[in-house]
Design goal:
The complex is a heteropentamer, with two copies of chain A, one copy of chain B and two copies of chain C. Chain A is mostly helical. Chain A has twelve helices and one strand; from the N terminus they run H-E-H-H-H-H-H-H-H-H-H-H-H. Chain C is globular and about 50 Å long. The termini of chain C are far apart. Classes of the chains: A mainly alpha, B alpha/beta, C alpha/beta. Chains A and E meet through helix 3, helix 6, helix 8, helix 9 and helix 10 of A and helix 3, helix 6, helix 8, helix 9 and helix 10 of E. Chains A, E: It is a multi-pass membrane protein.
Chain lengths: ~290, ~350, ~260, ~260, ~290
């Protein structure tokens, strides 16, 4: 029957076969991880090489923008003269302390405001307004309250970080699907248990996004504060290089700050993964 | 407001006269400051309008010559079209180099010397001002203020007693005030390295003094006002007499191919000083009003600090003296001082006042 | 006998939609009541009100517990109600621990019920790696392990294969008979309702009211053979008619609109 | 007759867990195949592989479509698979529009199927305001409206009351008979399987293989009375036995561990 | 039977009755909204009053920290002298433009990196490092690239906002439950349709948290930039007040900035609610 044949010819074939991932999952994962690493390191390297070439070719004025090799050289010099290490340490101490304090208080407010509407209603407009108050403009207040030395610097970082964690945590708490809470109600959970076993884990992924954002913010604000306050730290290194036009020093400072931010962010993400083993369970597609 | 003797006598026929010049080596506090008559030197408009762009870190009274030259049309009379952008000195240097700016304003901070050392063409072509009572610590003014209780005899403060104390500063010893401070310390037998720098922005230094975060601070206008009459603080060092520590810097174009425009620019500045900013200009309400309008400050705030002595001239040796201290303190990244001839070009203002 | 659950004129509106009509229902202490009714008629809503998750818009539910169990009430949710951030084991054990069971007992009960429900192998698995039926079994294990005085079950066996369903029905009956727990069991299977319940309650279409409440006349323990009896078929037919009437009414009302 | 779905040695592992054993299955074009099997044996996994959501770890599935429908394949998910950010209506209509149905036709089909499924009144409602059964009906409406050449259904009627279930079974049969669509229907109800299918496939416990594949000998259209026939009871008993064997094996293996 | 009686006496009674919300939902919602408003306005007002009292009583040095009434008076003065309005407008224009551009580009990167793992692998480390580079330290680069005027200011704001939206969007995309994607696969969605109908709406709530955070950030960075650049704007008002010791002006600037931030944040949240009508559907508990 011709029509039958025709119909057969028209048939579409769809194949479902194992992909490379299914055929050799371990090898494929290793390959993927290698690819990721290569890409992640390759792109910045490529940019650095381009920059170097542009400098060598004279397209970029080397007096103003040192080349990557210049920066490495300067960094080596500074390292040998022991002028980078103490600043790095000072900055790490400040930002670490400020970050931890700010995150803790921010999470506290976020949780309280996320869980209880009256607290949210009472504090949301106020905190929203305070959020955008330029903290550096309030320096006199900080100096008066916290005296001098490390304390106002740490306080400024903590206050800034606070707002980011507050918003993330509060939003995350409010966004927890009600089903989880309802199940908790039938399990007779106390407020604390409900928080500990239901709200917190449900909100954790979003809170960690906030923590990651705030990690960067804490480094940024640290540098900003050190521009004007506290006579050492990476911000000071950058600022001093800038005002005295020792630009090599400035760019070394910038690169170190960027690396600190990168490491900080990676650490926060790793902690997140450790704390949320379930977040990758059952994921099949996402690996590709 | 205060005042300073002014060089008189204008030689008839010359665009400004002998009063427009003084011996660069003369740093006498009572030295007459260079001045011409009102409205002089007269404009000599360029054949074609030249656009220039200058940077200033802030719009404040001490930059009034530039601001008023623009607002009063003195640049226009020279056929100059000057745009003023707000930018810190250090940030403006790269822009001068890349041609985005024709010149900038600022003081003799370490960055200037480092820049020139790196072959960045920047030339100091005109001075700006000094406080009328410079070198007279009995009069409250810009300078190093310290807590009185630090001294055994506050009437005759011995700076040696500041050893180990905390100095509030927004940049540390890289600014032009390093030189007067260092000189003051040296004459009392200590070094600036003997004090501890506490980095605090200018606006917050009084707060720092009050809450104990710092023991002393170089307070610029108008930050010393709140403690001017406070018996707890004493002025222990001031800017040197008769010596501007900064002013106007030209990029390569204005020194080179656009030199005529550079001279016209300086001529307009000089004329503005002579016309509006000579002597105790704050007693002239119109001048105060003009400054208030261009800076955005209130008239009262302007009158709160004395009239400055605007001085377009560059004293001999200022760059050397600044550099000496920066070299000694390691604030510049070279070892031997750059000669004044590579840093300073006085020909612009001499040409301006002599009608060339 | 005293009432364990006494619902009087219970209504629940969701905005303009009334989800549960005035419902009056008395459930005796120790009674096993099966609730059937058209989809969307308010069965889950009723259970949620009894469980204290929702408040009624009007009316009142009085719940009386004997106080001889650690947990007054617990519920098996239609959509499982388990936590993705806890492993199978943690989901069960944590519920026990927060309800006053000691560590050892909690562990022992967890092990027991995970075993009964065929989940022992998956104790360390996260719910996202389980099949639908396995997830439902976790919810069932949790409720059974808690051994509540009143057990609310919302279509608990819907996602289970016929065999497992039978096994669990027997487990449930065992549990119920041992301590005479009160059970409210929502199901869509009339057979299941008749096989398990002391009484079958038929709800009307949304907003659900009780349209029929029938005692199941069969002796316990009921053998599977009961299904083949004429009385069983008869009862099922009656309930079926009653229910069909409701569903037809429902479909007639709501399917209107643009469709003929 | 040609095969619509040809599965050859299909396996799927999840890490160390093998979810689906080597499975060989041929489903003819236009055939209605019901799949039953113990909970967690890999039924959903198989459907997901056919639907192209998952890839097999080994083996191959060949799908052949006639090309006479707009949509080659569509699936009703065990957990509904509808989008909470779309209203009931949008959930259905959007699926039609992205699959090449014109606006007018999409609207008309949406209206039709929402009506058939008793959802017309809730067309503007978001899924979070629906009951479990209503949500499942949205998923069914979407799949039916798409009129795919191959329809994969994963326990589609589990959350529906007995009556609605019957109504929808008839709808499904009507749809199937009209255009002879290929249907793969996973269910836990043997009755449903026998009543609907041309063939019933019984899967083994995890990792699921085909342990039995039985043609259903009843003529179509099948009246409900078929249920009461001896042949029906016999077939059901056979399948039941086969299945029990699997479930028992399953429970014996997995419930081990700490529990005796 | 005594034991029977005893058992009866032991019985616990639990009541499920309509709450205030159920009895009169509309009235109750109105009351709640009123309470929220009262709390939201009351807390800042209370703080202002306390501050005023502290100033009047002389506990706070009025020369350094003006009282609320002083601030209002100064604001009135400035308004009449037309010195506030143009700065406010300039700032709004800059921050609005920078925010929109930064958000758009950030969302673009976030989406691309959230959806395609190779892009994510390639750019994540680089962007993470750039995130913490102090943008103000790169001012010369911005000026060289964008010239003078509004452009570098807007660019600085845009670049800063970019990073926040990028992180939020990417995290949100990665966190979309796979079930949604899987359903989309069976519906034969094209990449664009999958994005438009599945990934975007699923990620939207988290993206809006990022947008809210970035709204505040854009105002903060605006002020920071205006401190050093651009002879007008609210940052300039604050900084000028500080440098000329007209502290009333500084605090007026700070308060106006705070209000701008508050309004900005509220607007972003309102837009979010409009765009996500489903997010409140079905919520019963959350209203309390
Ligand atoms: N994403 C995943 N990660 C790990 N294991 C999985 C995943 N999905 C399924 N499995 C495993 O595969 C097996 C089969 O799952 P599947 O969902 O196919 O079962 P099913 O036959 O549909 O069961 P049910 O009748 O309960 O729905 C299960 O044992 C489960 O543990
Ligand atoms: N949160 C809510 N918002 C709005 N309406 C709701 C909400 N919850 C339930 N409803 C409505 O209440 C009615 C009853 O819902 P319920 O879940 O109790 O039904 P059900 O009897 O359990 O149905 P099913 O058998 O399908 O699970 C439904 O029509 C639904 O539309
Ligand atoms: Mg229900
Ligand atoms: Mg399944």
């Amino acid at each position: 029957m011709p029509s039958q044949t025709l119909t057969r010819a028209e048939r579409q074939r769809i194949l479902r076969t194992p992909g490379r991932h299914e055929l050799a999952p371990e090898r494929w994962m290793r390959l993927l991880r290698l690819r990721d690493l290569a890409l992640g390191a390759g792109v910045p390297l490529l940019l650095a090489v381009l920059w170097q070439v542009a400098c060598d070719a004279g397209w970029i004025d080397r007096r103003l923008y040192p080349s990557p090799l210049d920066i490495i050289r300067t960094a080596g010099d500074m390292w040998q003269r022991d002028t980078l290490w103490p600043d790095l340490l000072a900055s790490l101490r400040r930002t670490g302390l400020g970050y931890v304090i700010g995150s803790a208080v921010g999470a506290l407010f976020g949780v309280a405001m996320g869980l209880w509407r009256p607290i949210r209603a009472a504090l949301d407009p106020l905190l929203n307004a305070l959020y955008t108050v330029p903290k550096l403009a309030l320096l006199p207040v900080f100096l008066t309250v916290f005296g001098f030395g490390e304390l106002p610097v740490v306080a400024l970082i903590a206050v800034t970080v606070f707002f980011f964690i507050w918003i993330s945590t509060m939003s995350a708490m409010v966004a927890v699907p009600e089903g989880y809470r309802e199940a908790g109600v039938t399990l007779n959970l106390s407020t604390w248990q409900m928080f500990r076993h239901v709200m917190l884990p449900a909100a954790l992924p979003e809170i960690f996004v906030g923590l990651r954002i705030a990690a960067g913010v804490s480094v940024l604000i640290l540098v900003g504060v050190e521009f004007v306050l506290g006579g050492n730290g990476l911000g000071h290194v950058i600022e001093q290089g800038r005002t005295t036009l020792v630009l090599g020093q400035t760019y070394v400072g910038i690169v170190v700050v960027a690396l600190v931010g990168l490491v900080f962010s990676v650490v926060v993400q790793l902690i997140g993964r450790l704390l949320m083993p379930w977040s990758r369970a059952g994921s099949v597609m996402r690996q590709l | 407001g205060g005042g300073t003797p002014v060089a008189e006598s204008t030689v008839a026929g010359s665009p400004c006269g002998a009063g427009g010049r003084s011996d660069p080596a003369n740093r006498d506090a009572k030295r007459p400051v260079a001045r011409c008559d009102k409205g002089l030197p007269g404009p000599r408009p360029l054949p074609q309008t030249v656009k220039l762009r200058f940077a200033t870190a802030v719009k404040a009274e001490f930059i009034a010559p530039l601001l008023l030259a623009q607002s009063k049309g003195e640049f226009q009379k020279e056929n100059l079209d000057v745009e003023i952008v707000v930018l810190p000195f250090a940030d403006s240097v790269p822009q001068v180099l890349s041609g985005n700016l024709d010149g900038t304003t600022g003081s003799l901070e370490a960055g200037f010397f480092n820049a020139v050392n790196k072959d960045i063409d920047l030339t100091w072509v005109a001075g700006n001002f000094y406080p009328p009572d410079a070198a007279d610590p009995a009069k409250a003014q810009t300078g190093l203020w310290a807590r009185k209780s630090l001294f055994t005899d506050p009437a005759k403060p011995d700076l040696a007693q500041l050893k180990g104390k905390k100095l509030a500063s927004n940049v540390g010893f890289t600014s032009s005030t390093t030189y007067p401070m260092a000189e003051a310390f040296k004459s009392n037998g200590i070094s600036v390295n003997d004090v501890e720098i506490v980095k605090i922005p200018s606006a917050d230094q009084v707060t720092a003094l009050k809450n104990g975060a710092a023991d002393m601070a170089w307070l610029v206008d108008p930050y010393w006002l709140p403690i001017a009459n406070d018996s707890n603080y004493v002025l222990v060092a001031t800017q040197p007499a008769g010596e501007p520590l900064g002013g106007f810097f030209f990029g390569p174009a204005l020194v080179g191919e656009k030199r005529a425009a550079g001279v016209a620019f300086v001529r307009a500045l000089v004329r503005t000083i002579n016309t509006y900013l000579a002597g105790d200009y704050q007693s002239d309400p119109a001048a105060v009003q003009a400054i208030a309008e261009t800076t955005g400050a209130t008239a009262e705030a302007i009158k709160g600090t004395p009239s400055l002595v605007f001085d377009w001239e560059i004293r001999a040796g200022t760059t050397q003296r600044e550099q000496d201290w920066f070299l000694q303190l390691g604030r510049v990244d070279y070892k031997t001082a750059i000669a004044e001839s590579e840093l300073v070009d006085r020909s612009f203002y001499t040409d301006a006042v002599e009608g060339r | 006998m005293t009432a364990a659950i006494l619902a009087e004129g219970v209504r629940r509106d969701f905005g303009a939609v009334s989800g549960l009509g005035p419902l009056d229902l008395t459930i005796d202490d120790g009674e096993f009541v099966c609730v059937v009714g058209p989809s969307g008629c308010g069965k889950s809503t009723f259970l949620r009100i009894v469980a204290g998750i929702l408040r009624p818009t009007a009316g009142e539910v009085t719940i009386a517990t004997r106080g001889d169990g650690k947990v007054p009430l617990s519920m098996v949710f239609q959509d499982h109600g388990i936590y993705p951030w806890k492993t199978v084991e943690q989901n069960v054990r944590f519920a026990l621990e927060v309800n006053g069971f000691g560590r050892a007992e909690a562990r022992q009960r967890t092990d027991h019920w995970l075993g009964q429900l065929g989940l022992a192998e998956f104790r360390k698995a996260y719910p996202s790696t389980l099949s639908g039926g396995m997830r439902q079994r976790v919810g069932i294990a949790r409720a059974f392990a808690l051994d509540p005085e009143i057990l609310l079950m919302d279509e608990p066996f819907a996602a289970l294969d016929a065999q497992l369903r039978q096994v669990l029905q027997e487990e449930l009956l065992g549990l119920w008979q041992r301590d005479r727990r009160t059970v409210v069991f929502v199901t869509h299977s009339l057979e299941e309702a008749i096989l398990l319940g002391d009484r079958v309650v038929v709800m009307s279409a949304r907003p659900g009211r009780v349209v029929r409440s029938t005692e199941v006349p069969f002796e316990r323990p009921r053998a599977a053979a009961v299904r083949d009896s004429a009385a069983f078929a008869d009862l099922k037919a009656q309930l079926w008619d009653c229910l069909r009437h409701e569903v037809d009414a429902y479909l007639a009302t709501v399917s209107g609109g643009t469709d003929a």
